[in-house]
Design a protein that fits this description.
By secondary structure, this protein is mostly helical. The protein is 68% helix and 0% strand.
């Protein structure tokens, strides 16, 4: 959980079965989420070179140019070797290199050494009245990072001793100046997460006399987000992540991540998180568009295989949620491919991607392949995923689910058909103009049900109608007509439908067509399809 331990928040779960509200396992999701460094609020010195290097290093790190940031912070230390600021910035830089880059142990050792030096330098400044408040803040921040590091290693007692010191220093900062808003970030994270961590760790907090207060933690994070000078982005990030993974308030999560994406449009991590928030809200088309824009811009070879793998996994979840199983299968396989290229901790990706591949193949009737993927899910990688995989080995997903995302497509089709019958009986022009739209909803429900031939007949009826209805109807009907043919293995007809749909001026639709064409060209689509859509 970052300043405590990133290992205690759940990984993005499969969209099909109800997971535990908090998966307190070794999923280390924030290793793949935190692409923005949690740099402490540092008052800049008057020296222009020192100020320039500080700003330059932080900007480089925010943009993930870690090597160049490292060089810049080294210059900062050389310029003022007695100032704790340069050591702390460099320590934070190495902390996140340890989180995100390959061969992370090298960075871990450098982080510990630099954080320890920052503490020593800060203590030497406590006697200086003008520098005392900042020195207390540096001490609090350095200790909190050491607590986070040891929490990551499951060294709970050591983590809490560092955390206790860190909280003590930050509380002294706020006691001296309640408007030192950047200090509320560390306090908020600590108060919140000590209230949601595993029972064994919570027992330690009780014995050591720590205050665990979920609501107080959220309020402090909101203070940092609203008023922090340097911590605003980090506070927004953690608030978004908390509401996405723990509080399950997906609308709030979306708002935080949209604000981050607006503030930092070049930070790809926010696209990944925003895409997941859209998916949790059921806004699957927005989620797909957001995540495609992210994965389509990945450099080769990728700098952070763990992050790339995590992005593909989320994209797979979106298509799984939409019951576009050939696409879901492709992106889950992409997630596994990139995970195998990483030396980092990617166990949760192996577990959940294999689980969801098993589910996907189960739903398209390929039981033998499904069983192969279920058996790859290891208990040591993810206990909850392993438990579900064992259940699925015994009982195929197709047989155990009777409804689709809480919807019965036959009932939906009946509703629209009844509406169509009433519309036909009405001689008014306005109601007659609604006929193509009603036909579309019936056709779309037939497609979702897997009745592709019946759906094709409906879509062709819409395209052949004298009155087209809304402007979106014809291009969308052509697009889904193509998708029906993809599922039936008729690639030439699918291509023709996509070509016709592409002629309409609709950038969102063209993006979806481009993706559908890529899948068609790669042969990822299958002529088999699910007869049910799994419950989210």
């Amino acid at each position: 959980m970052s300043i405590l331990s990133v290992k205690n928040l759940p990984a993005p779960s499969s969209p099909s079965e109800k997971e535990s509200s908090i998966i307190l396992a070794r999923t280390n999701i924030f290793r793949h989420l935190l692409l923005i460094l949690l740099f402490p609020a540092l008052s800049l010195p008057s020296d222009r070179d020192y100020e320039r290097l500080t700003e330059q290093g932080m900007k480089l790190a925010y943009n993930l140019h870690f090597d160049r940031a490292t060089e810049t912070f080294d210059e900062l230390i050389k310029l003022k070797p007695d100032n704790p600021r340069g050591y702390l910035l460099q320590a934070v830089n190495f902390y996140y290199r340890h989180q995100l880059e390959e061969n992370s142990e090298v960075f871990a050792k450098q982080f510990v050494k630099l954080a320890t030096t920052a503490i020593e330098r800060s203590k030497s400044k406590l006697g200086n009245k003008e520098q005392r408040l900042d020195a207390l803040f540096y001490l609090g921040t350095a200790n909190m990072y050491l607590a986070a590091y040891h929490g990551w290693q499951s060294n709970w007692l050591r983590a809490y001793w560092y955390g206790k010191d860190g909280i003590g220093y930050l509380e002294r900062v706020i006691a001296a100046d309640s408007t030192y808003y950047d200090a509320y970030l560390g306090l908020g994270l600590y108060h919140y997460y000590t209230d949601v961590i595993p029972k064994i760790a919570k027992a330690v907090t009780f014995l050591l006399g720590f205050e665990a207060d979920r609501q107080k933690g959220l309020e402090e994070l909101e203070l940092a987000a609203a008023h922090g000078k340097y911590s605003r982005a980090e506070a927004l990030l953690f608030l978004g992540s908390i509401h996405l993974y723990v509080e399950k308030d997906y609308e709030k999560s979306r708002q935080f991540f949209e604000e981050l994406a607006r503030l930092y449009p070049e930070n790809a991590s926010y696209s990944m998180l925003l895409g997941e928030a859209y998916q949790k809200l059921g806004k699957n088309e927005q989620a797909a568009q957001t995540l495609h824009q992210l994965v389509d811009q990945i450099p080769q070879p990728p700098r952070f295989p763990v992050l790339v793998s995590s992005s593909f996994f989320r994209l797979g979840n979106v298509y799984y949620n939409m019951r576009e199983l050939p696409q879901a299968i492709k992106y889950y396989q992409d997630a596994l491919k990139h995970a195998t290229q990483s030396t980092g901790e990617v166990q949760w990706i192996f577990a959940l991607a294999n689980l969801n591949l098993g589910r996907s193949y189960d739903l398209i009737g390929k039981r033998d392949i499904a069983l192969e993927y279920y058996r790859r899910v290891k208990k040591s990688d993810h206990k909850h995923a392993h438990k579900i995989a064992k259940e699925r080995i015994k009982t195929p997903l197709v047989r155990s689910k009777r409804r689709v995302d809480g919807n019965n497509f036959d009932e939906i089709i009946d509703i629209f058909q009844n509406a169509m019958a009433k519309t036909k009986a009405d001689t008014g022009k306005l109601t007659r103009e609604k006929m193509p739209e009603l036909n579309f909803h019936i056709a779309k429900s037939l497609y979702d049900k897997g009745a592709y031939k019946s759906a094709i007949a409906r879509f062709e009826r819409i395209l052949g109608a004298a009155t087209a209805g809304e402007d979106w109807l014809k291009p969308r009907s052509l697009f889904y007509l193509g998708k029906c043919y993809v599922q039936l293995g008729e690639s030439n007809k699918a291509s023709r439908a996509f070509d016709l749909a592409y002629k309409f001026e609709n950038e969102q639709l063209r993006l979806e067509i481009d993706q559908a064409r890529k899948l068609l060209a790669s042969g990822a689509a299958s002529s088999e399809s699910p007869s049910q859509r799994p419950v989210n």
